[in-house]
Design goal:
Number of domains: 2
Largest sheet: 4 strands, antiparallel
Radius of gyration: 24 Å
Helix content: 55-70%
Strand content: 5-15%
Oligomer: single chain
CATH architecture of the largest domain: Up-down Bundle
Number of strands: 4
CATH class of the largest domain: Mainly Alpha
Number of helices: 9
Length: 312
């Protein structure tokens, strides 16, 4: 029988390298823009203008208009893609609706006419931005705690149920780090921002990851009852091989649909769909190649930090 779990060090190394690239991207972003990734106005106070000119415009011309209104450092980003000719996104400090209308009029007078149907302004006050940020962190933290205790309860008849909960949360954390690193990279390359849809993607990915992990863990529980004297590593490996086809088939059916939306859907939801697709890939990988191997490594006392919790 092919032993997949035996190569756990390789899987851990791959995950560490991918997460490391994301962390490096977040550090670079933190140095250049002051945040580990570009935060949308949903998560911080400010105003976002998405405008489309009917004639070509330059960044310098647009920036000059905002500077004339006392906005010293607007983030001016060209929007690329089908249907976005002469389109720009400008992020500024919080401005009132009246002032936003004055800026729009100045853009028309000093730069070029605007396509009103493709232009909108979104503002979030400081208090709302702080509340949304706090709610986002709370949602992820509560999800992790609920998953931990849920797994411990479901696997209460298996030796060391705490380990199953910790490994499931570790797999979920792995997936969150992957998609956070991905959005940091895309923020530097394409100007993608973290908004409310990103939080939706994070929670969706966490749910998919948990589903895959529970499927494999449940097969481990069944095989422990059927083969009580078999080596734990062999039981874990057998369980992975018995469920890998189901996990891949389930995720592929979702990924094909997501890829179709990514290729043919609108540009406004493209970051959300891309993050979701990366998260699904990561969720499948972490469930099979991180959560289960981590259980085996814990059982064999291969990780010094986890070995301290031998009785759990």
């Amino acid at each position: 029988m092919f032993n997949m779990v035996q190569r756990r060090r390789v899987y851990f190394t791959i995950s560490a390298l991918v997460i490391g690239v994301g962390i490096v991207a977040m550090i670079i972003s933190l140095i250049t823009i002051g945040d580990p990734f570009r935060l949308g106005v949903d998560f911080r106070s400010g105003t976002r203008f998405e405008i489309q000119f009917l004639e070509p415009a330059t960044e310098a011309e647009i920036r000059a208009v905002y500077t004339s209104f006392g906005i010293s450092n607007p983030a001016v980003i060209a929007i690329r893609g089908e249907g976005f000719e002469n389109a720009w996104q400008i992020r500024t400090e919080f401005v009132t609706p009246d002032r936003a209308q004055q800026i729009e009029r100045a853009l028309i007078e000093q730069v070029a006419p605007l396509d009103r149907d493709a232009t909108f302004v979104q503002s979030v006050s400081p208090s709302v931005g702080q509340e949304v940020t706090r709610a986002a962190f709370t949602a992820v933290a509560v999800a992790a705690v609920v998953i931990l205790f849920y797994i411990m309860f479901v696997f209460r008849n298996v030796p060391h149920p705490f380990r199953y909960g910790v490994c499931a949360v570790a797999a979920m954390t792995h997936d969150i780090l992957i998609i956070v690193g991905f959005i940091a990279i895309m923020g530097m390359l394409l100007g993608w921002e973290v908004d409310a849809l990103f939080l939706t993607a994070v929670l969706t990915v966490a749910g998919f990851s948990l589903q895959d992990t529970v499927v494999v863990f449940d097969r481990i529980r069944e095989n422990l009852q059927r083969r009580p004297y078999e080596d734990y590593e062999m039981i874990a490996n057998r369980s992975v091989l018995e469920t890998i086809h189901r996990s891949i088939a389930t995720q592929l059916s979702s990924i094909f649909v997501i890829m179709a939306i990514l290729l043919f859907g609108g540009a406004t939801i493209r970051p959300f769909i891309a993050v979701l697709m990366v998260g699904l890939f990561s969720g499948t990988y972490s469930s099979l190649f991180n959560a289960v191997p981590l259980l085996v490594a814990w059982e064999k006392k291969e990780i010094p930090l986890l070995s301290r919790f031998e009785g759990l």
